[in-house]
Amino acid sequence: MYRNKKLIAGIIVLMILTSVATLAISSILFMDFKQLNPEYSIIFDPQKVGKENIEKFNKVRTILKEMYYAEVDENKMIEGAIAGMTQSLGDVYTVYYTKEQMQKLMEISSKSEEVYVGIGVSVMMDNNGLLTVVEPFDGSPAAEVGIIQGDRIVKVDGEDVTFIKDEDLIINKIKGPENTFVNITVFRPSEGRNIEFNVQRRKVKYALNLRSEVLDGNIGYIRILSFNDRQISRIFNEALDKLLAKGIKGLIIDVRDNPGGYYSGVVKIADRLLPEGVIVYTEDKNKNQQFEKSDETELGLPMVVLINGNSASASEVLAGAIKDHKKGMLVGTRTFGKGLVQEIIPLNDGSGIKVTTARYFTPSGVCIHGIGIEPDVEVKLDDEYKDLPISKVPRGDDVQLKTALEILRAKVQ
C-alpha cells in the first residue's frame, strides 16, 4: 500500500512538472514577440494555432537572423510577415500597404484628375489577381504599341507584379514622369505567351465616364464606362434629364466593359430608376446586414441593361437591382462576379490595410461573387469581335445593342 501511495504521488509530481515545462516552453515560444512589444501578452491563440507552427515561425526567424549573409532588419521582417498574413487569405482584394504605399494611395484618392501621366488603359483585377486590360484609350501610348483588351500585366520594368494583389499599387509603378519610358510585359491568353512593350509615358486624358444619345428616334442610350467618378450620379441624372426632354420612350443603359467604381454613386443612380425597396445590401461574417434603399419615385420607362463579362462590382449592383425589381431586362452575357466589400483601415505608423469586410447581395438575396449575373436574354457578339472592347465594335455589328433596341421597340410601339 505504501509503495502504491509513493507511486501515485510520483505520478502526480511528474504531471505537475510536465505541465510547468509545457508552460515554460510556451512562454519561450512567445518571448521574442513579447520583448518586441510588451503590450501584447499573446500573439497567437494557442487554442487555434498548433505548437509546431509557432516553433517553425520562431525557428525560421532565428535562422534568418543568425545565418542570412547580410544584416537583417527585423522591422522589415515583421512587416513582411504582416503582408504575408493578408496574402494567406487567398483574397485578391485584401492587401497590406506600407507607409509609402498608403501615402501614395491617399494622395491619388484625394485628387480629381482629368489628366494624368501614364500609358492610357482601363484595367481591373481578374479572379486570379492579375491586372487585366479592359480597354486601351483611343490614341493612348498603350494603344499605339499594341496593348489590347484581355492582356494581363505581369511585369513592370522587369519586376514581377503578379504577386501584387492591388491594382493601385501596380498602376503607381506604371505611372511616372512625362516622356519617360516604362517596360510592360503582358501575358496574352489568346496567344499563350508573354509580350514585352516599351511604352512612353505621356499625358493622358481620362476617358469620359458617360456617353448618351437618342437612337431610332425615341430610345435613349446611356453608356456608363466606369463608376470611378465621385460625380457619376450627377452626370448620369443630367444626361437622363436631357434625354427625357427629347421625348424618349425607352432607355438602354450600357455597362459592358464597366469594371465598377464608387458604391455611393451606383446606389444614387439606382434610386433614380427603381421604385421603393431594397437596392442592395451587405452582410459580414457575423450576419450583420446593411441595406441601401430607394424611395417611391422611379423612372416610368421600359429599360434594357447591356452587360458582359467585364461588367463588375458597381455595374453588377445596378444590373442586379434592376433585374430583381423587374424594371428592365438584361441583355448580353454573364457578368464578372465581384460581390465583395472592401474597407481601407489606416494603421498607427502610417501604413494601412485594405480588407474585405462583407459581401454584396441583390434585393432577392443572391450573392453574385464568383458567379456573376445571368442575362435575361443571352446574346454573344460575333467571333470576330469577342476579344475587342465594346467601343471597337461597329455599331452596325453590335448584335447585343440590336437586340436591346428590338426589345424596346416592341414595348414602346
What's the SSE blueprint?
Elements: H1 2-36, H2 51-67, H3 74-88, E1 95-97, H4 99-110, E2 115-118, E3 121-125, E4 131-136, H5 141-145, E5 152-156, E6 159-160, H6 167-174, E7 181-188, E8 193-200, E9 202-205, E10 210-215, E11 219-224, H7 232-245, E12 250-254, H8 263-273, E13 277-283, E14 289-294, E15 303-307, H9 314-324, E16 328-332, E17 340-346, E18 352-361, E19 377-378, H10 399-412
Helix pairs in contact: 1-2, 7-8, 8-9
Walk me through the structure:
The longest helix has 35 residues, at 2-36. The strands form four sheets. Strands 3, 4, 5, 6, 7 and 8 form a six-stranded antiparallel beta sheet that branches. The chain has a six-stranded mixed beta sheet with strand order 10-11-12-15-16-19, sandwiched between helices. Strands 1, 13, 14, 17 and 18 form a five-stranded antiparallel beta sheet that branches. It is α+β, with helices and mostly antiparallel strands and 413 residues long. Helix 7 (232-245) runs parallel beside helix 8 (263-273) and helix 8 runs parallel beside helix 9 (314-324). The chain is 34% helix and 25% strand.
Average pLDDT over all residues:
86
- CATH superfamily annotation of the largest domain: 2-enoyl-CoA Hydratase, Chain A, domain 1
CATH fold-level name of the largest domain = 2-enoyl-CoA Hydratase, Chain A, domain 1
| Tally of separate domains | 3
Structural class: alpha+beta
Keywords, please?
413 residues; alpha+beta; Pdz3 Domain; 2-enoyl-CoA Hydratase, Chain A, domain 1; 3 domains; six-stranded antiparallel sheet; six-stranded mixed sheet; 10 helices; 19 strands; globular; disordered N terminus
